Amino acid sequence: MSAENLNGGLETSFQNTIATVQFGHPASNSFPRALLNQLTTEINSLSRDENVSVIILKSEGNRAFCSGASFDELLQVENEEQGTEFFSGFAHLLNAMRNCNKLIIGRVQGKAVGGGVGIISACDYVFATPESAIKLSELAIGIGPFVIEPAVSRKIGKTAMTQMTLAPHEWKSAEWAFEKGLYSALSDSTNLDQEVEIFAQKLSSYNPEALFEMKKIIWEGTEQWESLLFERATITGKLVLSDFSRNALLQFKK
Known about the structure:
This is Methylglutaconyl-CoA hydratase. This protein is of the alpha/beta class. It has a single domain (9-192), classed as 2-enoyl-CoA Hydratase, Chain A, domain 1 (Alpha-Beta Complex). It is built from 11 helices and 8 strands.
């Protein structure tokens, strides 16, 4: 599906044993639930594909990497069940990335907010540009980064996650994210794709069985996410119905 349509979309291309998955949405590469489901299904499919050894995850365009959840869909949530279902989309995606048999390389060309930071955190190795600032804005819209918190804290630590969460209007620079360990490497935007490709080719040349065993070791101790992330989705699904959240979302849309 083309990533240019109004509902967003997903495209996967293959080069030898490297699969490149690109998602896109006109609203700063945000995620409506349908697109979250598509990406989760694709990650699960590639995990089972014996012809794939490495996955590159990227977004469309040269500006924002991902602005997180779709505000339009959040405003359409009418009850706790719908809210929980929506945020469970991020839980399913993070668990798919965690459980994926293949190492996932993130290619981040620009800013990321909320769920976008969570997706970056669930990648195994991340290339970013100096323009790739990050922000956890959830408190400002009446909720919190509850579903993605385990992924973010695992990458940058509880203290740095707290700094981001309690300052929801504050952007953290790409250099800050690199120093904290969210980004593995910083690259000039003109060299980003080349550096990602070179790294992916090297990684794909290694023993697939060794890569698989390394993936398991990288994610040791996260087994409780199978239930934890969905418990967090329930919390968020309830909070998004509050008057505070509704008013804040409307203000952000304006």
